[in-house]
Design goal:
The complex is a heterodimer of chains A (287) and B (312). Helices cover 80% and strands 0% of the residues of chain A. Chain A is mainly alpha-helical. With 312 residues, chain B is of the alpha/beta class. Chain B has 2 domains: 218 residues, P-loop containing nucleotide triphosphate hydrolases (Rossmann fold), CATH 3.40.50; 66 residues, Alpha-Beta Plaits (2-Layer Sandwich), CATH 3.30.70. A 6-stranded mixed beta sheet of chain B has the order 6-7-8-3-9-10, with helices on both faces. Chains A and B meet through helix 1, helix 7 and helix 13 of A and helix 2, strand 6 and helix 3 of B.
């Protein structure tokens, strides 16, 4: 098993297209997008605060009655507060901080998509491409057990996306703490729900997507086609993510129950994948 | 069972309606090089895959190196080496890494020296630490061969080992097969190249979805190629076919490379009579010689395919 994982890791490291797509781009997004947006919004917020101060001084000295543009625009527009929908504790936060929270929560929502999307690429490369390029057959001719081979493939394809998700999560928590303060971030984001999503849901989702690709690889001879069919399969999960981002599903309390079906699907998917990956049958599959 | 490397009993494989390998009874002796000859699509690869535990048979059973094909699959895999039809190399790995990976899968401890020896044997030392992405077919096949022999298997399956290789690479592969034979390793050589089979094999199985013949190359030549007499004629009788049909012991004839090849019973006895008959019918006989059938002719004869160049 160790040797199989070593080869998967080496292949990921040396396959430039795969490495950029699975490691570099998600990390750049995680480390660049949210901090950049937060910095811009925070600076704007400081500017608005300064403008309000200036107006107050002018009001006192000159007796002018001027309102900041942002307050004018907001007048009379009553509606649900999207940030409060995402987490009730945030309803009491000042308006400027609520914008920062919205950015943080949306960015973290994007990160939870990584374990669904990235394994499509790694698994297609590890399974379908290997079978079509004939590199699987010599491995099958060695004494390595079928379940070892399958586990190596599943771990090799699902661990990098999980690691990237966890790393991105840590980076974003750090950045959020910088802008919003650690106590607030801890209260809102380091909750059992979020921890379960990131540290339980991400590996489960990643492995499930990889197992789906194993099953698809039995019927689909081309890596790109397998990726596209796999994307169709993960669409419902993406829908759940969209619901989370829009506030339709709350992140506290409910989330662990939404993950339960995913966890329950893992075992039957694994059993089916073992059957598909069986040494005596896999080479008889259509190429 | 000590003298038998492979023993199959009704071993067969179907893919839906297609019978790729009809129930096969075959015995391969330990230490021999068995050529498994047949045209492309004859089921050679399917047979190789079944015997090397890569594909489940749909009927029959087999004993490979004393282990049942189904129950002892893992034990078989430890002791066989399989050179697949495609080299199956990982392009981003170097030959040394590739061999280290397979040594690990075979559970070899401290394989460094063995890897170096394999690389040296196949002349790959200079390229040992370069990624294999840009390797020629010949180089790739050498690495695949090194991988196949790395764990010193008792039985080696070679599926079309020289297909698409240049002359030099072919020579390396053939020398290696001869070296394996010298060492007493059993070799199951699936090929469609007659010359290769004739040069390397102790026995040859002619196969097209079923076993059609199994014997030493020279015996197959004599049995299926027949005994023939080759004539060079200056004047050919216009009704040559009826002229030859008059002779009861002439079995058939063909034109090949400007020569008339006549298959006869007992050529040593009949040749003078046949020459006299042709001359009497107006032929001018310039040259007569005994023609030995090649293995190719024997195989094509067995498969019922007319050799290229036949004008008859």
């Amino acid at each position: 098993m160790g040797w199989l994982l070593w080869r998967e890791a080496l292949d990921l490291w040396r396959n430039r297209r795969l490495f950029v797509g699975v490691i570099v781009v998600p990390l750049v997004l995680a480390a660049g997008m949210m901090p950049g947006l937060l910095a811009i919004v925070a600076r704007t917020e400081q500017a608005v605060s300064a403008q309000v101060q200036v107006m107050r001084v002018r009001q006192e000295l000159l007796g002018e009655r001027v309102e900041p543009r942002s307050q004018k625009a907001g007048r009379g527009q009553a509606g649900p507060n999207p940030v409060a929908l995402l987490h009730p504790r945030l309803a009491n936060e000042p308006a400027g901080r609520q914008v920062l929270w919205l950015i943080v929560l949306v960015s973290l929502g994007y990160i939870t998509i990584f374990p669904l999307v990235l394994p499509l690429t790694t698994a297609a490369n590890a399974l379908v491409q290997e079978r079509t390029e004939g590199t699987l057959e010599p491995v099958l001719a060695t004494p390595v057990a079928t379940h070892e081979l399958l586990w190596a493939k599943v771990l090799g394809a699902s661990l990098p996306p999980v690691a990237i998700t966890w790393l991105s999560w840590c980076i974003q928590l750090g950045v959020a703490a910088h802008f919003l303060g650690w106590p607030a971030v801890r209260d809102v984001l380091v909750t059992p729900g979020w921890v379960m999503v990131v540290f339980g849901g991400a590996p489960a989702a990643s492995m499930l997507v990889t197992l789906v690709l194993v099953l698809l690889s039995a019927r689909i001879p081309d890596a790109r086609a397998a990726q596209q069919w796999g994307a169709l399969v993960v669409l419902p999960a993406m829908g759940l993510q969209a619901a989370l981002l829009s506030g339709a599903v709350r992140t506290d309390g409910v989330l662990p129950w939404i993950l339960l079906p995913w966890l329950l699907l893992l075992w039957p998917a694994y059993r089916m994948a073992v059957r598909v990956f069986d040494r005596g049958a896999i080479l008889a599959l259509r190429r | 069972m000590t003298g038998v490397a492979i023993l199959t009993s009704g071993l067969g494989r179907r893919f839906g309606d297609l019978e790729a390998v009809a129930p096969l009874d075959l015995e391969v002796r330990r230490g021999e090089v068995l050529g498994f000859l047949g045209p492309n699509g004859a089921g050679k690869t399917t047979c190789t895959r079944m015997l090397s535990t890569l594909l489940e048979p749909t009927c029959g059973s087999a004993i490979v190196l004393g282990h049942d094909l189904e129950a002892g699959a893992e034990a078989i895999r430890k002791r066989v080496g399989v050179l697949t039809e495609q080299p199956g190399l990982h392009p981003r790995l170097t030959p040394r890494e590739h061999l280290a990976f397979f040594a690990g899968l075979h559970g070899l401890s401290r394989p460094g020296r063995r890897i170096d020896a394999q690389l040296a044997l196949l002349g790959l030392e200079e390229h040992a630490d370069r990624p294999m992405a840009g390797f020629s077919k010949g180089m790739a096949q050498k690495v695949a061969l090194a991988r196949t022999l790395l764990h010193q298997p008792d039985l080696v399956f070679l599926d079309e080992p020289t297909s698409g290789l240049d002359v030099d690479s072919c020579r390396v592969v053939r020398d290696l097969v001869l070296e394996l034979r010298r060492r007493g390793t059993t070799v199951f050589l699936a090929t469609h190249l007659m010359d290769e089979a004739e040069r390397l094999c102790d026995r040859v199985a002619i196969f097209r979805h079923r076993l059609l013949a199994l014997d030493a190359p020279e015996a197959l030549r004599a049995r299926f190629g027949g005994q023939r007499v080759a004539f060079r004629l200056d004047d050919v009788p216009g009704d040559l076919e009826s002229v030859l049909r008059e002779v009861p012991w002439v079995r058939d004839y063909a034109w090949q490379g400007g020569e008339l090849l006549v298959r006869v019973d007992q050529p040593d006895l009949r040749t003078p009579d046949l020459v006299g008959h042709l001359v009497a019918r107006g032929a001018r006989v310039r040259q007569v010689r005994a023609a030995t059938a090649t293995l190719e002719e024997a195989v094509l004869g067995t498969l019922g395919i007319a050799p290229a160049g036949d004008d008859a």
